[in-house]
Each structure stands twice: as structure tokens, then as C-alpha cells.
Amino acid sequence: MAWMDAFGRTARKLRLSVTDRCDLRCVYCMPERPVWLPRAEVLTFEELARLAGVAAAQGVRQVRVTGGEPLLRKDLPRLIAQLKALPGLDEVTLTTNGTRLAALAGELKDAGLDRVTVSLDSLDAASYKAMARAGGLGETLAGMDAAEAAGFGPLKVNCVVMRGVNDAQVGELAAWARKTGRLLRFIEFMPLEGDKIWSRNLLVPASEIAAAVASRFPCVERPAEPGATALRYD
């Protein structure tokens, strides 16, 4: 029997956060000085797999592994293999900042991981650093290349857009996505960040982002799928 909410929607997807830790401090997400959960409070791989198994038995068909930064979790490919072995699951995916993807892409593919989504907010090193407050653009780009070489493709890419930081780069990012064949998703800056910096002055609405892309390339909006949370364009 599938899980269904009060609106009659069936739960088919589950997000598993395998760690709250991250090697970046993105301004739209993490506080600059985070306080981590005690390791004893973080679920083991066996507990995570058991939870996913219960969800699969109730109709969930896709598990997305997230964090924090999930690739910081030691031996993550072992969990991927455990999830892939669960009856009923059609797909196991991963969302990552990509900084450690170059070293792990092959192992993740061998473990059975189906798809990878990488967060990338800028192709400019200075803008990347301003938003991530750690890491380096080159590491993320190298991680993407390694993922594609391992057989993950087309890659999905998430980009949070902030006024005065990377909003002028929307067209450039769209051009890069068209050239590389990567599937780019622009995301509005939401008030979920740890340092409470959100304001309407930093928000770039979806309509403005779409217009910036349409000014450079033909954009045809796809019909919305039931329950969809994103506007899709070809």
C-alpha cells in the first residue's frame, strides 16, 4: 500500500540525508560556523537501508542520497549497494557539491548508483568562492568530468541564483549547459540558510531567470507534470 497525503498525492520519492557535515559553507545553505550532530545520532548504513526498505514496501520507487555533503560519509558506495539491493526501488540517485566526486565516481558507478546531480553556482572562480566560502571551482568541474567518464550522464546541475552575486551569469551558465549537454536547473534563493541573510533584495525570481535565458536562446516551456515543482524548458 502506497503512502498518500491529505491531497491524494502518492509518495514515490525519498530523500536520505546521510550526514549533516559539509566541506563548503554555501551562503544560501550553511552557517559559516556550523554545529554538527554528534556522530552517535547519525544513522548507520544498516539503519538507513532499513528505513529505505520500509519506504520501498510502501510504494517509494526512488531514493535520493543527500547531506550535508554525502561524499563526506566514509564508504558511501557500500550504502549505495545496499540501497540498490532493496526490492521495489527503481532508482538510487545522489546530490553532491562535486568536490570529492572525481575520486569516487567510479566506485559509485560500480555500486549501482543511477544518476548524479551536482551543485554549481558559477563558472567564475571568484563568484564560486563568494558563494561557497570554501573549496574551489576546479574541484567541482573535475568531479563532473569524472562522473561523465564513469558513465553518469547526462548530469543534472543545480544553480542557486542570488542578486548581485551570480545573476549576471545566468546566460553564460545556460550556454555552458547547452555546450556540455548537462541539464541545468536554476533555483530561487530561499530563506533556508544558516546565517539568516535572506532578503528580497537578494532574490531573483524565476520569471527573470527564464527571461535572461530566453534573451540568448529559444525557450519553449514544457507542459507541467502533475505535482511538478519546477518549470521546464526546451
Question: Would you write up a description of this structure?
Answer:
This protein has 234 residues and is α/β, with parallel strands linked by helices. The chain is 32% helix and 14% strand. It has a six-stranded parallel β-sheet, with helices on one face. α1 links the parallel β1 and β2 (62-66). α1 (45-57) packs parallel to α2 and α3 (101-111) runs parallel beside α5 (137-150). The radius of gyration is 18 Å and the shape is globular. The mean pLDDT is 93.
Sequence-ordered SSE layout with sheet pairings:
Elements: E1 13-17, H1 45-57, E2 62-66, H2 76-84, E3 91-96, H3 101-111, E4 115-119, H4 125-132, H5 137-150, E5 156-161, H6 170-180, E6 183-188, H7 206-214
Parallel strand pairs: 1-2, 2-3, 3-4, 4-5, 5-6
Helix pairs in contact: 1-2, 2-3, 3-5
Order of secondary-structure elements: EHEHEHEHHEHEH
Low-confidence stretches: none
Number of strands: 6
Give the amount of beta strand, in percent. Answer: 5-15%
Mean pLDDT: 93
Question: Which percent range fits the helix content?
Answer: 25-40%
C-alpha termini separation: 36 Å
Physical arrangement of strands within the biggest beta sheet: 1-2-3-4-5-6
Rg, nearest Å = 18 Å
Number of helices: 7
Let me know the largest β-sheet: 6 strands, parallel
Categorize the overall geometry.
globular
Query: Which structural category do the helix and sheet elements fall into?
Result: alpha/beta
